[in-house]
Write a structure and sequence with these properties.
Keywords: Cell membrane, Membrane, Transmembrane, Transmembrane helix, Transport. The chain has two domains: 199 residues, Cation efflux protein transmembrane domain (Alpha-lytic protease prodomain-like, Up-down Bundle); 86 residues, Alpha-Beta Plaits (2-Layer Sandwich). Helix content is 68%, strand content 10%. The longest helix is centred in the middle third of the chain and has 30 residues.
Length: 295
Amino acid sequence: MTRSVKIAIGSVFIGILVLAIKTLAWWLTGSVALMSDALESIVNVATALAALLAIHIAAQPADADHPFGHHKAEYFSAVLEGVLIVVAAVLILREAWGAWLQPEPIQQVGMGLIINLSAGVLNAVWCFVLLREGRKLNSPALVADGKHLLTDVFSSAGVAIGVGAAALTGWLWLDAALAALVAVNILWSGWQVIRGSVGGLMDAAVPEEDLSEMRAIISANAEGAVEAHDLRSRRAGQAVFLEFHLVVPGDMTVDCAHEICDRIEHALQDAIAGCRVTIHVEPEHKAKHSGIVVL
């Protein structure tokens, strides 16, 4: 079992525990704002399950039907997370509108807030784990899950403050207004998750700083070649695909050209986790006198 799968399983258990705690807080208080917080936790459980399934699929080795692997499964999971987040936001807005029209008094505020805040602390700790490990493992599904959980942490804190203020002032409309604000925050989170995943599904190039690192590695390890050009890249889950043309002297043997390619490939794979390199060797008259200059 890979580390990514273990973390994804942990997310499912944490999500169920937080959902139970927040549901208890809502049951004690009757607050629609705390209900919205609990409803978002249902989405957390669903997205954690989707992330677990996607990471399991993405970890499967390449086969005859999928020669480049199954890495993009994680992007489908992240898109599904975004859609579920939007659905949750719409449901919360519906409940908030009902509470705005017919506000209800909040019960056992102190105990309810203490219980709800304990769930927020648990979410904050796990959010840190997801973001740190997701970036370390280049897992879009874990990062998306962590970013969504981060918005949950902030919205839970805001809800707790607002519910306390509503109980102290007697302004019951604050409860419904806070639920609506939570919904808007969730909508923004869902949009961010979907936007980031669509880039991966559309084979967007890796960030410019990563490309600069790749060019420097190629330049430093291509001794004997003339130049490298037409560098193209894309990220698919935990894998980074890189291809380019390497121009070598016309009289260079195949063995020597292959040795240069191996040297570049190993250097890239050592520096960039999950890097898959394809090099097209060309004779000197194909040089474009642009691109990557060999040091």
